[in-house]
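Today's session is about reading a structure prediction critically. Students often jump straight to the picture, but the first step is always the sequence itself: look for stretches that repeat, for charged clusters, for runs of hydrophobic residues. Only then move on to the predicted structure, which in these notes is written as discrete structure tokens rather than atom positions. Here is the chain we will use throughout the hour.
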Amino acid sequence: MKIDKSLLSGTTPLLILSLLRDGDKYGYQMITDLALRSEHIFELREGTLYPILHALEKDGALRSYEKQTPAGKTRRYYTLTGAGEKRLSERETQWRQFTGAVERVLRAEPSQA
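Below is the predicted structure for this chain, in token form.
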């Protein structure tokens, strides 16, 4: 079953910050890690990922740097900053409250009028 993309709206920054908690990553690495961790439910395109990365970097949640691969190719890596760690923690708390509330509504017994 295909997931409605509107359900993903607003959660992508949380997912990206969460990926970077494990260590620095470059864009394509984030795309593949997210797809694998989500069992291919979340498959971002570069055109979606990079504007979010740039916004998070502008807001101070991420920092980027370039590094050469052993093959000589230059890649831009992203790393979580202290502000990014704080934002991730806050968003995780909000997400857990939100999903908990949704679950309670979905599990609720129909009211007897």
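Discussion point for the tutorial: Residues 5-106 form a domain with the Arc Repressor Mutant, subunit A fold (CATH 1.10.10.10).
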